[in-house]
Write a structure and sequence with these properties.
CATH topology: Alpha-Beta Plaits
Largest sheet: 4 strands, antiparallel
Radius of gyration: 14 Å
Number of helices: 4
Order of helices and strands: EHHEEHHE
Helix content: 25-40%
Strand order of the largest sheet: 2-3-1-4
CATH architecture: 2-Layer Sandwich
Strand content: 25-35%
Amino acid sequence: MKFTMLTLRPAPGRVDDLIAYYRAAGILEASGALSSQVLVPDDDPGTVVVTALWADPAAYAAWQNSPERLEFSRGMTPFFGSADSAHTREFQAEHGYVPAT
């Protein structure tokens, strides 16, 4: 499995707008990830962290290259003040637990 962590630093005062966009657009649901969350760190309320667990690297690559993701990214542009407001880290899951649904 692959785990990703996207760190977003929206323009001041835009965190709630960004989270509302994620909800309204259904980005997490559309991604195809096994599990995903939008998080706001207690110690950094101006940052949004999006985590996702993918079945494999191919599933993540499919999302990265999808036209739908490109449209979501374009829709988020107004929430950011600079091009370096997003950073992704990728992890190979070595051990974990995902309960059956």
